[in-house]
């Protein structure tokens, strides 16, 4: 969490008095602020101790440990019991409050019955008693208002605490997971546990108490109604009892469907995580369609289940709407027809109101309790399964976390170490390894791809489970992974990693890691934010930041997993001299490397092959024993025994989890940390004001046509009218019966006192007609209620599907810069949380709101029509209500939006932690990261707690408005008793009492709909993202099918910038790359090498002119361009699915072609040994292949495409030299007739190129053959070669010379279709650039030489201000090695010059 988001604001609830807590007055100051301005995170109250993430996590961990101890005695651990011990007693207390609340709902109808009796003809109730009964009804309403909200706030808060405790426990567990366990889960699943499953606690807690309160309430109701209606009560109760199991069964069916949906949702979120993380590769390979089809397939399966869930919900809520009517209908039908009873207004409305009182708890809350309990059980089972996954067992280690020893005593010792990642595999990852490293020693570990080098480091870290032997570690460890881990924070925060900032040490480390110049070039210096996944840094910069972090930790022992492969030769030599053999000279260091030039300086070399130690000793010892290093690194031709599986974990991480970005600074970790001003990450947009009407229009138009929507509106209105009609008809019927009964009684009375004839007219009441009409109305209520529910959910599901598809198709088409500036977590949040809300929460909330809204309107109209006096107080009450709603929403909307933005960092931190898990565990800072996670959770809790509390604040005030309304209606009825009859009084009073809970619920649902619609708004925002250029060319601009036939690339004044206000990363470059030419591209990290790729693929639109075979690539479709250019990317990206799909997603090649290409990249045997061969599953991130193997698979993809242009982006950085050599041979053979651009840090891979293009700070500073570039002692390229060391430099010069002499450059003119034998005979071929391959030195005037004037005419790039070697982080222009190198380099220069003159004589 950034320092800027830390604040201290005490929570007022901790000091509030009981009355303030009851009415939520303690929130008034916050609402005042929220009404005046937008609420920010600084306005939030800090969490109270009982809601604190760390506190709750510690308690649950303690209880869970008690459960785990049961396993020792053969018992089963139960997470439910652990949670009950923590929260059970508190939860029970709130159950007692609920019991009294529901009891009041039973008493209120009895008082109403006595009030209605006052309005019956010949009533015996006095006016005073009537006022007292009216007051009793009002007091019951007051009691309900007082008891309801503390219960709901209390249980929701307990649900929140359970969620917080479980998330904290899950995170702690994630940090302890063994590598085998990590292979059994994915980031998507863990994120889903924390985002969706834990939410069941928030919901289930509300309803579970109704499972025992509901039946008790039902017993009381039977007793009361038996006194009124006799045995016919049982008829209505039979329906009620029938509805409960049906609804409960439907609830269970719904939770089953949800569980099936969750599987598809997991799959979709996991897939989206991969797509978003690998978007650059998807765009360059033109794989939008296969991935679009894959997402569509998964989403279709998810939508089928969602559709079924929607219909199930419709079947639950539709009957609920009419359930009370059905119960009353059957009760009165049995009473009137079966018992011949007489309906009176008192009987009718006692029955109606008492059933209305228990309707929610019996027909909705009990089924919901069953449903949520079932869902909770599923979620708890998922938690438990995760919590029981295997943990890291450092049993083979000694002294890892003991007291730090003296520097001279620090060491690592491996004795007979045998280990394997998967216990089910026969083959060992490491077998019988014996090695040790003492203080001041450098041990180099070498071996071919898949030999077990990274696994050796993992065994020292305790990550790889040992089968035999032991690992002794004395001292604090620091580990640098093969793929550098950085998180989204400032560069300084990445380096100091939560330790105390010491400026002198920090600056020294920056210089040692050659970061000083990089920092100078950064806009905010070391406070610059390095974006999610380190997007703003090059691969080499990320490696150096990781190295600097390790140095700043000041550990005792350093484990370096090939950190020099990602940097260029000059920086690599500098890092080796100043860091590995400089700052770490007195410490034990184990260096895994493929770069043989460093082996001479190692104290000991360990050689691994197939997990076994096949040799060891000093460099000289190994040479004397006749060992050929190159041969040792050669991949085996035949395997001695079949491998069951490609060896896992040769990569730096067994679960290389795609980082979802972290807004994390480790500021909260160390008390001594000095807050720094950092460039904050791009804030997630928070919109102002209400959700616009256009959002609702777009939502419904996505789900329904105008006709369908109109029909849905009419269906809702008809359903509501039929609902009110049923009550009105009951009122009319009871009045008729009452009048008839009164007339009969009057007639009987007159007969008794002696009248033979009376003038009393006894009205005829056709009971059967009344029953038929009432039955018809009830039938209408049922049919229309069910139809509107089913239709609404169908529209909602269709809208969700349409909007998801629009968002996804737009995400696929948006420019790559969008993914560089937005963390994966932020984008993924739209596809997980926001789409989840649209799928799951919004439909039910919206439907509930529509039902409530129509009922409320119906209630107010009925009450007003019955007694127009009611309209008088309704006007001020409405004005007051509108003001309170506006006042509430001003703050509520901000709080809900803050809740959304404070949630993302929780998942981001989790994902970043999993991605850097080995670094975190090696550094022993799990507790620091746990504290950081708790800080993120607390920030989210602050918003969620306020969301719950402000909802209650609003509900309390709405309920008091309803209390006033109920009181007004009841007293108005007594006041206007002369004009009122019992039936209408009963109708209006029953409706007014119904309003009590429904009004606040309906209004809160309207606010909740608006909050949920924010998710729709956020999805719609992504449907309007800017789009790349068209994928296909216009008909008149489409290139011919044979294009490009030559592969000639020409750039004229090309510039590139990643954003409109960003700096130029390529600055007015001009170049011409000829057909079939092999060009190496070099430059220090950050020089613009990768930007050249972005330019050629139009990942970012460049300015200037770029043509391939005379066709301007800016004028054609992106797929027409990208399909013709192959790339082997810097970071090898594999996707979940079969290996075949990874190689050939369009199924364009047969098996023979695929096996052939795998053979060409040395992978055929390894893949053949896999179960399934080409159909073998690739794990998330491709972690079941080593990094080297992943790069070989990417090479195989490129070979299959058979394009005329190939770009290789440092693709062999993670393979050993021998494999590299074989790959280079394959590339030369397979791409002989192609134009090949190779970005390289290993200079040996490009020394035989036709030409080398040298970049510096976005400009081309040299472009010539390697041979000619090496003749310039003050040139950039020459200095790079010198940095590799004397032996390697000689070797590289030999390659350049041999390549030159054998005609690799001069004699390829015919291949390049040039009329002359030497490239240099045509000045235009070297458009504005230096260096003609075959010409004499005088044709290549150097600006400082005698032909300077001529050079200025020819050259656009002038070799002025050539940086000294200090720019590469070095102290001087030559590195002395045994005091010989200066002498050697001058002799080599003379030798090259003499050879050059000889060569031209021969020509």
Written description of the protein model:
It is a single chain. The chain is α/β, with parallel strands linked by helices. The chain is built from 42 helices and 24 strands. The chain has a six-stranded mixed β-sheet, with helices on both faces. Strands 18-21-22-15-23-24 form a six-stranded mixed β-sheet, with helices on both faces. Helix 4 (79-117) packs antiparallel against helix 30 (982-1023) and helix 10 (233-277) runs antiparallel to helix 12 (288-338). The chain is elongated. Mean pLDDT is 77; it is low at 1-5, 395-401, 634-681 and 1304-1403.
Give the helix/strand layout.
Blueprint: H1 18-23, H2 28-36, H3 53-69, H4 79-117, H5 127-176, H6 179-183, H7 187-197, H8 199-207, H9 210-229, H10 233-277, H11 279-285, H12 288-338, H13 345-387, E1 397-398, E2 411-419, E3 430-438, E4 442-446, H14 453-461, E5 466-474, E6 477-480, E7 489-490, H15 491-496, H16 503-512, H17 516-521, E8 529-530, H18 539-553, E9 557-561, H19 569-583, E10 589-592, E11 604-609, E12 612-617, H20 619-624, H21 629-632, H22 693-703, H23 706-752, H24 767-813, H25 816-821, H26 824-866, H27 871-915, H28 917-923, H29 926-975, H30 982-1023, E13 1049-1057, E14 1064-1073, E15 1078-1082, H31 1089-1096, E16 1103-1108, E17 1111-1112, H32 1118-1122, E18 1125-1128, E19 1137-1138, H33 1139-1143, H34 1151-1160, H35 1164-1168, E20 1177-1178, H36 1187-1201, E21 1205-1209, H37 1217-1230, E22 1235-1239, E23 1251-1256, E24 1259-1264, H38 1266-1269, H39 1276-1282, H40 1286-1301, H41 1348-1354, H42 1381-1402
């Amino acid at each position: 969490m950034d320092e800027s988001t830390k604040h201290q604001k005490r929570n007022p609830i901790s000091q509030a008095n009981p009355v303030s807590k009851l009415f939520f007055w303690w929130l008034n100051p916050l609402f005042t602020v929220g009404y005046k301005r937008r609420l920010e995170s600084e306005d939030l109250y800090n969490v109270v101790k009982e809601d604190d993430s760390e506190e709750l996590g510690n308690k649950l961990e303690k209880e869970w440990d008690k459960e785990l101890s049961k396993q020792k005695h053969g018992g089963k651990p139960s997470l439910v019991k652990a949670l009950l011990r923590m929260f059970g007693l508190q939860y029970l207390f709130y159950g007692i409050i609920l019991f009294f609340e529901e009891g009041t709902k039973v008493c209120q109808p009895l008082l109403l019955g006595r009030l209605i009796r006052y309005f019956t003809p010949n009533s015996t109730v006095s006016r005073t008693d009537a006022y007292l009964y009216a007051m009793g009804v009002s007091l019951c309403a007051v009691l309900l208002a007082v008891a309801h909200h503390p219960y709901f706030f209390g249980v929701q808060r307990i649900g929140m605490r359970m969620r917080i405790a479980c998330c904290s426990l899950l995170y702690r567990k994630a940090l302890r997971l063994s590598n085998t366990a990590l292979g059994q889960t994915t980031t998507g699943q863990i994120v889903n546990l924390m985002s969706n499953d834990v939410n069941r606690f928030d919901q289930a807690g509300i309803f579970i108490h109704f499972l025992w309160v509901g039946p008790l309430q039902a017993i009381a109701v039977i007793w009361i109604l038996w006194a009124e209606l006799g045995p016919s009560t049982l008829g209505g109760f039979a329906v009620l009892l029938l509805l409960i199991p049906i609804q409960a069964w439907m609830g269970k069916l719904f939770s089953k469907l949800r569980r099936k949906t969750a599987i598809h949702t997991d799959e979709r979120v996991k897939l989206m995580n991969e797509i978003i993380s690998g978007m650059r590769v998807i765009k360059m390979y033109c794989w939008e369609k296969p991935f679009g089809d894959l997402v569509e397939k998964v989403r279709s399966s998810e939508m089928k289940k969602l559709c079924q869930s929607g219909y199930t919900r419709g079947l639950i809520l539709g009957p609920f709407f009419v359930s009370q009517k059905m119960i009353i209908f059957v009760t009165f039908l049995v009473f009137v027809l079966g018992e011949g009873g007489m309906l009176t207004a008192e009987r009718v409305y006692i029955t109606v109101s008492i059933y209305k009182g228990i309707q929610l708890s019996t027909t909705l809350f009990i089924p919901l309790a069953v449903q949520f309990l079932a869902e909770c059980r599923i979620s708890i089972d998922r938690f438990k399964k995760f919590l029981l996954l295997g943990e890291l067992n450092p049993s083979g280690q000694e002294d890892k976390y003991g007291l730090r020893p003296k520097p001279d005593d620090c060491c690592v010792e491996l004795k007979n170490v045998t280990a394997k990642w998967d216990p089910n595999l026969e083959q060992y990852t490491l077998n019988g390894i014996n090695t040790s490293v003492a203080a001041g020693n450098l041990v180099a570990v070498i071996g071919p791809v898949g030999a077990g080098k990274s696994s050796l480091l993992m065994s020292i870290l305790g990550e790889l489970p040992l089968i035999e032997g032991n690992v002794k570690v004395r001292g604090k460890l620091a580990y640098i992974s093969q793929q550098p881990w950085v998180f989204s924070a400032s560069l300084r925060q990445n380096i100091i990693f939560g330790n105390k900032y010491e400026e002198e040490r920090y600056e020294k480390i920056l210089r040692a890691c050659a970061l000083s110049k990089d920092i100078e070039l950064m806009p905010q210096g070391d406070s610059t934010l390095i974006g999610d996944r380190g997007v703003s840094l090059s691969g080499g910069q990320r490696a150096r930041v990781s190295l600097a972090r390790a140095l700043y930790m000041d550990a005792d022992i350093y484990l370096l997993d090939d950190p020099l492969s990602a940097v260029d030769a000059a920086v690599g030599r500098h890092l080796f001299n100043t860091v590995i053999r400089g700052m770490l000279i007195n410490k034990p260091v184990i260096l895994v490397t493929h770069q043989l030039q460093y082996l001479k300086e190692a104290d000991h070399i360990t050689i691994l092959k197939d997990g076994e130690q096949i040799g060891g000793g000093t460099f000289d010892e190994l040479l004397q024993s006749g060992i050929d290093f190159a041969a040792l690194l050669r991949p085996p031709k035949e395997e001695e025994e079949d491998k069951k599986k490609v060896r896992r974990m040769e990569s730096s991480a067994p679960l290389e989890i795609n980082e979802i970005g972290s807004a994390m600074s480790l500021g909260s970790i160390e008390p001594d940390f000095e807050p720094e001003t950092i460039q904050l990450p791009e804030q997630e947009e928070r919109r102002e004001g209400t959700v616009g009407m256009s959002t609702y229009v777009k939502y419904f138009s996505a789900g329904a046509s105008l006709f369908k929507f109109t029909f849905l509106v009419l269906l809702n209105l008809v359903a509501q009218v039929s609902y009110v009609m049923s009550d009105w008809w009951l009122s009319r019927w009871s009045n008729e019966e009452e009048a008839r009964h009164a007339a009969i009684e009057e007639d009987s009375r007159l007969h008794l006192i002696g009248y033979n004839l009376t003038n009393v007219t006894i009205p005829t009441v056709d009971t059967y007609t009344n029953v038929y009409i009432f039955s018809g109305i009830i039938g209408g209520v049922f049919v229309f209620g069910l139809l509107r529910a089913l239709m609404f959910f169908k529209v909602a599901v269709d809208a969700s599907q349409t909007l998801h598809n629009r968002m996804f198709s737009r995400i696929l088409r948006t420019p790559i810069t969008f993914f560089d500036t937005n963390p994966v977590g932020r984008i993924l949040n739209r596809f997980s949380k926001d789409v989840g809300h649209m799928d799951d929460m919004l439909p039910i909330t919206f439907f509930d709101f529509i039902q409530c809204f129509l009922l409320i309107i119906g209630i107010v109209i009925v009450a007003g029509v019955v007694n127009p006096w009611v309209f008088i107080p309704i006007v001020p009450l409405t004005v007051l209500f509108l003001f309170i709603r506006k006042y509430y929403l001003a703050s509520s909307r901000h709080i809900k939006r803050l809740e959304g933005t404070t949630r993302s960092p929780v998942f981001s931190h989790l994902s970043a932690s999993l991605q850097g898990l080995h670094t975190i565990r090696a550094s022993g800072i799990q507790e620091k990261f746990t504290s950081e996670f708790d800080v993120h959770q607390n920030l989210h809790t602050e918003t969620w707690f306020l969301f719950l509390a402000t909802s209650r604040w609003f509900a309390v005030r709405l309920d008091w408005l309803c209390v006033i309304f109920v009181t007004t209606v009841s007293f108005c009825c007594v006041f206007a008793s002369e004009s009122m009859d019992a039936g209408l009084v009963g109708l209006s009073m029953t409706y007014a009492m119904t309003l009590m809970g429904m009004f606040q619920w309906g209004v809160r649902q309207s606010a909740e709909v608006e909050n949920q619609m924010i998710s729709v708004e956020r999805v719609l925002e992504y449907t309007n993202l800017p789009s790349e250029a068209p994928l296909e060319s216009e008909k008149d601009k489409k290139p011919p099918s044979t294009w490009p036939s030559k592969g000639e690339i020409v750039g004229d004044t090309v510039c590139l910038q990643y954003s409109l206000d960003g700096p130029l990363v390529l600055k007015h470059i001009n170049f011409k790359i000829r057909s079939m030419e092999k060009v190496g591209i070099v430059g220090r990290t950050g020089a613009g090498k990768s930007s050249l790729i972005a330019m050629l693929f139009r990942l970012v639109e460049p300015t200037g002119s770029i043509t391939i075979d005379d066709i301007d690539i800016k004028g054609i479709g992106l797929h027409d361009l990208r399909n013709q250019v192959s790339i082997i990317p810097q970071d090898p990206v594999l996707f979940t699915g079969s290996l075949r799909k990874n190689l050939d997603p369009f199924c364009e090649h047969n098996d023979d072609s695929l096996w052939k290409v795998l053979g060409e990249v040395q992978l055929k045997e390894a893949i053949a040994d896999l179960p399934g061969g080409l159909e073998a599953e690739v794990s998330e991130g491709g972690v079941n292949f080593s990094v080297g193997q992943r790069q070989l698979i990417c090479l195989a993809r490129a070979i299959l495409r058979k394009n005329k242009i190939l770009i290789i982006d440092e693709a062999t950085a993670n393979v050993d030299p021998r494999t590299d050599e074989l790959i280079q041979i394959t590339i030369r053979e397979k791409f002989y007739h192609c134009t090949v651009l190779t970005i390289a840090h290993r200079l040996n891979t490009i020394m035989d190129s036709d030409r080398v293009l040298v970049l510096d700070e976005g400009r081309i500073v040299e472009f010539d053959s390697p041979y000619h570039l090496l003749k310039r002692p003050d040139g950039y390229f020459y200095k790079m070669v010198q940095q590799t060391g004397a032996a390697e430099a000689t070797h590289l010069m030999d390659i350049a010379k041999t390549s030159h002499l054998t005609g690799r450059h001069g004699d390829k003119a015919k291949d390049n279709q040039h009329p002359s034998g030497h490239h240099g005979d045509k000045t235009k071929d070297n458009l504005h650039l230096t260096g003609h391959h075959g010409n004499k030195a005088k044709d290549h005037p150097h600006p400082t030489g005698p032909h300077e004037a001529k050079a200025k005419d020819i050259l656009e790039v002038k070799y002025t201000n050539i940086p000294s070697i200090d720019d590469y982080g070095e102290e001087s222009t030559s590195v002395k090695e045994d005091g010989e190198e200066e002498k050697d380099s001058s002799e080599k220069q003379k030798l090259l010059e003499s050879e050059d003159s000889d060569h031209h004589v021969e020509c």
